Amino acid sequence: MPSAFGPWATSMSTGNRVGLSTFWKRRMHMLPSLLDVGHVLSHRVRLFLTLCAICFLGVPTFSGVAQSQETKTSTEPVPVGNNTPSEEQPKTADPDQKDSAKPDSNRPKKVQDVPEPPRPEDPLTKAIGQQTPEMAELVNQYNTALKQRRYGAAEEIARKAKQLEPANPTAEIMLWKVNFALGKEGGKHSANGAATNDLPARARTERSPDANIGPPSVEYLPRPWPEDGRIVRALDARTSFDFNDVPLTEVIKQISQQHKINVVIDYAAFKPDNPPKAIRVPPLKVDGISLKNALKLILDRHQLSFVIEHEVLKLLPQEAAIRKTITLIYPVRDLVSESGDFESLITAIQESVGRGTWSKDGAEVARIIGTISKVPASGSLVIHHNWQTHSEVLELLRTLRQAKAIQATTP
Question: Could you tell me whether strands 304-309 and 325-331 are parallel, antiparallel, or unpaired per DSSP bridges?
Answer without folding.
Answer: unpaired
